[in-house]
Write a structure and sequence with these properties.
Cofactor: [4Fe-4S] cluster
Pfam family, one: EndIII_4Fe-2S
CATH superfamily of the domain at 83-183: Hypothetical protein, domain 2
Binding site for [4Fe-4S] cluster: 241, 248, 251, 257
Largest sheet: none
CATH class of the domain at 83-183: Mainly Alpha
Family: Belongs to the Nth/MutY family.
Number of strands: 0
CATH architecture of the domain at 83-183: Orthogonal Bundle
InterPro entries: DNA_glycosylase, Endonuclease-III-like_CS2, Endonuclease3_FeS-loop_motif, Endouclease-III_FeS-bd_BS, HhH-GPD_domain, HhH_base_excis_C, HhH_motif, Nth
Distance between the termini: 29 Å
Structural class: mainly alpha
Shape: globular
């Protein structure tokens, strides 16, 4: 498990309508009821050598608050109308873009609208529909398998428990938490490639295993924040903090990022790197990039500031 740290730093060892609670919360402004979700195995949170646990928690939560203002309507970018469609779409999204999935699923759900329909489908016909998503044979096997399991074991309904979801073919913790958080209003952290990249850049954790990342990051936030946190981080990763060339000079959380400078810091050049995806880029709140830097061109205020 390695050494842990005490609080003082000493080492001690949308195009489709979504009929979901999360969507209703956006439309009505009413909070979604939060229910318990199973957590991953516990992993010690290890702040960096120059940052106490308390400072890490404050910085992490401040980043989330900042991102919540930048992306107030962050949500799953997969089109769905019910839990079954979200489950299938999330499985299909592996190794491809949400846009590609959204272009593919309308034909799939028009022909096979229920788990019973998809379970009885001809595999070759499903493969032809899913071909644009890549890995279409494996994905066909997964969606047919999970549809059969839903039909035989759950009465054709998507279960609302993590332990049941992860037993379905092609469904892991990441997919399960997408469904739980957005179809059932139950908190969960979605550790996709964007989430992994950003939390490591922000020095929230040095873990590389998704389950360990989930546990470490989950310990920094109350459970009620987990689902929205996932959306905020993923949206930021898709729009600004890219894998190869992050737009550091246009980033609203530059003062809080230990990795500032890994990408383009020139404000004008950074603006050209911003990606506008479905849902747009809510840039009205963004300050001029130079406002996040001190006279020497470095992030200000100091990292860990409250």
């Amino acid at each position: 498990m390695g050494e842990q740290s005490s609080g003082d730093g000493r080492k001690t060892g949308k195009t489709a309508k979504k009929v979901t609670p999360a969507k209703k919360a956006v439309a009505t402004g009413k909070p979604v009821a939060v229910k318990k979700a199973a957590s991953a195995k516990k992993v010690a949170v290890r702040p960096s050598a120059d940052e106490s646990r308390t400072a890490l928690v404050r910085r992490a939560r401040r980043i989330n608050r900042e991102l919540a203002e930048v992306y107030p309507y962050a949500h799953p970018e997969l089109d769905f109308e019910n839990p079954f469609q979200l489950l299938v779409a999330t499985v299909l999204s592996a190794q491809t873009t949400d846009l590609r999935v959204n272009q593919t699923t309308p034909a799939l759900f028009a022909k096979y609208p229920t788990p019973e329909d998809l379970a009885a489908a001809n595999p070759e016909e499903v493969e032809e529909i899913l071909r644009p998503c890549g890995f279409f044979r494996a994905k066909t096997k997964s969606v047919l398998g999970l549809s059969k399991a839903l039909t035989e074991d759950f009465g054709g309904e998507v279960p609302g428990r993590l332990e049941d979801l992860v037993k379905l073919p092609g469904v892991g913790r990441k997919t399960a938490f997408v469904v739980l958080g957005n179809a059932f209003g139950r908190p969960g952290i979605t550790v996709d490639t964007h989430f992994q990249r950003l939390v490591r850049r922000w020095k929230w954790t040095e873990e590389t295993d998704p389950d360990k990342i989930e546990a470490v990051v989950g310990a920094l936030f109350p459970k009620s924040d987990w689902t929205d946190l996932s959306h905020h981080v993923i949206w930021h990763g898709r729009r600004i903090c890219h894998a190869r060339k992050p737009a550091c000079g246009a980033c609203p959380i530059a003062p809080l990022c230990p990795a500032y400078g890994e990408g383009e810091t020139d404000p004008e050049k950074a603006k050209k790197l911003l990606k506008y995806e479905k849902g747009g880029f809510p840039g009205q709140r963004l300050k001029p990039p130079q406002a996040y830097l001190d006279a020497g061109g470095k992030p200000a205020p100091p990292l860990g500031a409250a």
